[in-house]
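User: My instructor asked us to take a sequence, write out its structure as tokens, and then describe one feature of it. I'm not sure where to start. Here is the sequence I was given:
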Amino acid sequence: MQATMASSRPALCSARMSTQAAGPSPKLAAVRSARSAVPAAFKLGSKLATSQIQKSRSSSLVVKAAVGDKEVTAIKQTGNTSKYLALLGLKHKCLGFDYQGVEIIQVTREDLLAVAASLYTDGWNYLRNQCGYDSEPGGDLVSVYHLAKVDINTTDESPGPEEVCLKCFLPRDDPTCPTVYWIWQTADWQERETYDMYGIVYTGHPHLTRILMPEHWKGWPLRKDYVTPDFYELQDAY
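Assistant: Let's start with the prediction itself. The structure tokens for your sequence are:
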């Protein structure tokens, strides 16, 4: 038995060496790519003292703008997450709050991975829901991400988790957006459903196929300009 184990060790070592020589796995490569999208400002911001970051997280933001020869100062209502992203120098736009007080933040598809990776490292460890909607017939398609901070020590008496909502507006003629599967793997089936219903293509998704409709279905059923076919024949049902 010892001879068998000894003879198997070189084979195991050679297998590990061949795996390492083949390079990192696609998942690891995607994670590294998402992290590389985070600008240098985030790397510097991550070293700031926690007290300094928390101190900057107020419910308002002082905005200064030049109007003619005068400088106008205004107070813009914003949330903690928007203030945090501004501290890191990440591009975004605060859209306000929903009826439950959840902050809504708009990001472009070019900045989505940088913002998502930064929020993940800030404790937003749970993608509660990913969905989409059609803003208007002929208008933008929107990819939506509801994030939450989930504490493993939460009890029934604990208050609800912090929440934030990200929105990425995409042109109708090119509705492509990078997948966040490599950051939150709960995006797997949810992005597939958004693709199936709205035709938003999540680049980098490991298996982006229809999940509700048949693979050969034409069109995107939840778009506002979708025309329901009068007749559909299911071929080879049995």
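For the description part of your assignment, you could build on this observation: Residues 2-21 form the longest helix (20 residues). Try explaining in your own words what that tells you about the chain.
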